[in-house]
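Residues pack. Consider this:
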Amino acid sequence: MKKDAANIDDEIIFDDLGELSELDFGGNREENSEEDYAEKEKYIEENLWFKLEKVGKKISFARDVMALYRYMRDSFVSWQRKAIVIAALIYFISPIDSIPDLTPFFGYLDDLGVITALLKFLGSELVPYYDPRYRV
């Protein structure tokens, strides 16, 4: 009998939901995502060069950041994949990190972790975007 009572409670709860399309889970529609992508790409365009000029010699993964930038600018890459790259580049540019960039020796470890994870995710798809001088 307890099983029947549980099923009745579930039916009462789910009857009030109505159409699932009315539920808002905080996600964006595809059209809104493409607009957000364009805004974030503009932010990267404006700030990436300043950050690389400032710290480019201190970090060993500057060439990876440049390859990711070229990948992001490629018109043949889907915007969904570009959005992942944009998120990583914004994290790199942002002065607010889990480990502040001003911390000696450890300041860029979190940035390196994010970039490395993205490089692992993209794999050999990213190889053509490296400067030929860096290829071995």
Q: What stands out?
A: The first helix runs from residue 2 to 15. Residues 29-134 form one domain.
